[in-house]
Specification:
With 72 residues, the chain is mostly helical. It has one domain. The protein is 85% helix and 0% strand. Helix 1 packs antiparallel against helix 3. The two termini are 31 Å apart.
């Protein structure tokens, strides 16, 4: 498995974890005041999710730049 495939796969799993924490957060809020650790739990997967998402967004631009430098 290449680094790109590993990052893409982990991004998908982190997205599922993030979604579950947000759903759990809303479910807890419907029951009353949720504990602080549950309120802030979606932030834990959000940071690596943002980093991997930015990597996948900019990867094609870096590949084009590298290809342009190789031909000139």
């Amino acid at each position: 498995m290449t680094l790109h495939e590993l990052i893409r796969t982990s991004h998908r799993w982190l997205g599922m974890v993030f979604t579950l924490t947000v759903v759990a957060n809303f479910a807890a809020m419907s029951q009353g005041e949720p504990p602080p650790w549950l309120v802030y739990s979606p932030l834990a997967p959000l940071a690596p999710l943002m980093i991997s998402g930015l990597y996948m967004f900019f990867r094609p631009y870096f590949a084009r730049r590298r290809a342009a430098r190789a031909t000139s």
